């Protein structure tokens, strides 16, 4: 999704892809085949580029450190920043040292230490592999050390975190240039399903402006403290008293920011490109009072194009994004966004579009969504 | 500019380009090299595609008719429609037969006929070569037949049109599917400079709603009458009494519709793709009360990227599009768009951005544009 923004700004991009069937490799003009964890492949790419950036966090730090040391390319975010999105234990240590709010946590180097940590955290806690997790992988809620017996011996201690009694999840996205210029998008509310982001409402409903501003400032402070360049997403737990705790960090355009592609003056992919190319950052003002983004998670239907056509026919006001990926159950294969003034109506329309695309056969033109919010002015 | 929309909708596109340095060829994943007037090249492309469509009107009708006759691909718009955007004389004959409003016109097969036509039109008129003109090429205002002496013998009669005393130019864009479903974008006002579109304001200021609706209906009627599939732009002259006359037709995303990329729920490039792929059409509602688009016409400055960075720094709220073309004086090399509520402020900002990119060195942070309209909320 960086490519459309790059095309509009005439910023040439070369994609490193493991396989020519990957989404980006199917649409980019310049594609190099190679693995992101193959030092030679990443170094060869870097040697042809001014700036190296990422759409995931899985490039090994040592490869990036070597590229920086040799001055092959600017690496943005730099490995010294990126490690905080790659290693949750490094992130917890650093945020705690900086005084940023985290759940109670500890590290456990062996089953006995984990049993002790579980006891200290109320007998039940979240255990995470510090590296390699995403979308719920590498995260388990356990009450007995034996439940992660298979995770030992994979390198280093595990992270143990309190089970936060959160009332909802929020996400704060900021963009930061090398010189420190930064902008904060509105704080959004995200809903997970089976550990995967499913629905985002921007801005977060019922978030008092002072608290929203404090959360933006927290995200800006983390970006500055860690010297992030590019987009940073700070995923947060909000608790009953309104305080927030940092859950995870992502240093790239993030699922919780997809709404901005259609709902803000400057979308997150253009913003990331501006930041890593050290261009002035763009306006983050929303284009409507509310934006709702719902992920398309693969179901049983293979033909997403047919589903998209059905959803477009039901509601001309939704914006459909399809990633060109094969459908597998639960896999993120696209998203839909709808913006407007009536949040409840937007939620209903976005979820109806999602179900229509994934499942098909939704016949609810008369379900109360009467099209009055879909802007059919001028329609013949 | 169709490619970003195609990527988001997962619609694979193959570009036919004469030279690998052409804008689309530089960014598309699938590029075939060949001329648009080489029957073999166009036919070979068509044989690989479901739908053949265009970003200009210069593919010879005979090539397209052959493709349709053999069923190699859907050609959208079809050659029977497209000819009205390719041949201004065919267009005038047809629109006049249909009763759609045109300037007074006649055709002149030789200098004597042209002299007669000039006399009938007040001694001074617009003479056009029916085919091959664009951006002011093939159009001359003459008072003596000798002024187009070089145009005879290039095939067929010339078109002679009255010099319309228009007060401004308007443009009405519609999209139409093969089955007839159609939508009309808001009517816009366009300003030409040296025969080239330079500034567009959407919607057209001071256009009474009833007149705007009548113009949309005229454009929808032309699309239906000519069986257009895809985007149709109807360029119009508005005269002192508020009536309109059709100037020219374009059957593709058009410069007067670029504002919709950033200023409407569905931009014209996505809309064109939806129409030609026979997908349901998207919502054309504007995202703000006003959108202003200003073209970047090449000046003396070669380094547009540096200019864009300056313009972005002056105004984070503008959206910059660069086409990746070499700079030549007067050549369209990009455009900027800005949307919001204060039309005069948007015009000032868009033109300041244009001058900054093309000329550089604009130092007018204190020229009255105080940033209050540029939405810096959330900026650190």
Walk me through this protein's architecture.
- Two copies of one chain form a homodimer.
- Chain A is α+β, with helices and mostly antiparallel strands and 380 residues long.
- The first copy, chain A, folds into three domains: 2-75, Rossmann fold (3-Layer(aba) Sandwich), CATH 3.40.50; 104-162, Dna Ligase, domain 1, CATH 3.30.1490; 166-359, ATP-grasp fold, B domain (D-amino Acid Aminotransferase, Chain A, domain 1), CATH 3.30.470.20.
- Helix content of chain A is 31%, strand content 25%.
- The first copy, chain A, has twelve helices and 17 strands.
- In chain A, the strands form four sheets. In chain A, strands 9, 10, 11, 12, 13, 14, 15, 16 and 17 form a nine-stranded antiparallel β-sheet that branches.
- In chain A, β9 (166-176) and β10 (182-184) form a beta hairpin.
- Chains A and B meet through α1, β10, α11 and β16 of A and α1, β10, α11 and β16 of B.
């Amino acid at each position: 999704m960086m490519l459309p923004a790059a095309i509009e700004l005439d910023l040439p991009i070369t994609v490193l892809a493991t396989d020519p069937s990957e989404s980006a490799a199917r649409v980019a003009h310049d594609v190099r085949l190679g693995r992101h964890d193959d030092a030679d492949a990443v170094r060869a790419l870097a040697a042809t580029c001014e700036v190296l950036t990422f759409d995931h966090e899985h490039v090994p730090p040592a490869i990036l450190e070597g590229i920086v040391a040799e001055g092959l390319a600017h690496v943005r975010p730099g490995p010294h920043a990126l490690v905080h999105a790659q290693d949750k234990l490094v992130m917890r240590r650093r945020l705690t040292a900086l005084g940023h709010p985290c759940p109670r946590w500890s590290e456990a180097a062996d089953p006995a230490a984990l049993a002790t940590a579980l006891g200290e955290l109320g007998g039940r806690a979240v255990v995470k592999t510090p590296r390699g997790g995403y979308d719920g992988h590498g995260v388990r809620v356990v009450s007995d050390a034996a439940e992660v017996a298979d995770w030992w011996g994979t390198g280093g201690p595990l992270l143990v975190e309190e089970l936060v009694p959160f009332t909802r999840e929020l996400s704060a996205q900021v963009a930061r240039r090398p010189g420190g210029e930064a902008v904060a998008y509105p704080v959004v509310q995200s809903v997970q399903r089976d550990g995967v982001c499913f629905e985002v409402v921007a801005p977060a409903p019922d978030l008092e402006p002072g608290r929203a501003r404090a959360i933006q400032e927290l995200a800006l402070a983390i970006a500055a403290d860690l010297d992030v360049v590019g987009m940073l997403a700070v995923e947060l737990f909000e608790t009953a008293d309104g305080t927030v705790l940092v859950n995870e960090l992502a240093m790239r355009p993030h699922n919780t920011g997809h709404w901005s592609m259609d709902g803000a003056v400057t979308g997150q992919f253009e913003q990331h490109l501006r930041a890593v190319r050290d261009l002035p950052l763009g306006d983050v003002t929303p284009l409507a009072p509310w934006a709702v983004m719902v992920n398309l998670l693969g179901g049983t239907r293979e033909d997403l194009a047919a589903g998209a056509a059905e959803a477009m026919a039901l509601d001309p006001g939704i914006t459909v994004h399809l990633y060109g990926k094969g459908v597998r159950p639960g896999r993120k294969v696209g998203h839909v966004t709808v913006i407007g003034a009536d949040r409840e109506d937007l939620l209903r329309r976005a979820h109806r579009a999602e179900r229509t695309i994934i499942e098909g056969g939704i016949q609810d033109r008369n379900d109360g969504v009467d099209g009055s919010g879909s802007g059919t002015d001028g329609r013949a």
